[in-house]
Amino acid sequence: MALRLSKKKGQARKVVKKIQPIKKAKATKASLPELDLPTGKYIEAIGRRKVATARVRIYEGETGFYVNGKLAENYFANINNAVKLFHEAFDLTGTKGKFAVSAKVSGSGVAAQLDAVVLGLSRALVKFNPENRTILKAEDMLRRDDRMKETRKIGMGGKARRKRQSPRR
Hints:
Blueprint: E1 3-5, E2 12-14, E3 43-49, E4 52-60, E5 64-67, E6 70-71, H1 72-75, H2 82-93, E7 99-106, H3 110-128, H4 132-138
Parallel strand pairs: 5-7
Antiparallel strand pairs: 1-2, 3-4, 4-7, 5-6
């Protein structure tokens, strides 16, 4: 602390600065419209793609498509034809508007998550009605895409196929 001499008395006086606490702005969630997630009896199936895993539940008699608590149109907004892809299974089986869908997705990127949701939805529709299997199988909607990221090799310089830089001399 700094000492300041007073001209009048000649005694040292301590100068204490008052530190005022910084007021933090409280973070408030943007008010999102309340979503009525489906409830009740459901049929569940799991779909996977790359590292993404989707747990898909279909509820009979309701409508709506939710992914991780958001509308699917908003969750997959950056992907072209996303709405068409996740409604394709309903269009093929003739069940459009008969089910509400709720999906919990984790892992990988958004595109792989979409493929995982589509596979899980197709599997759930087959559980609901086994006759849907022939329709969806003909369109390759029940095939799990097994392409995964290639594993890294030892001594390759960090990536799967990258070669190490060789010394010039």
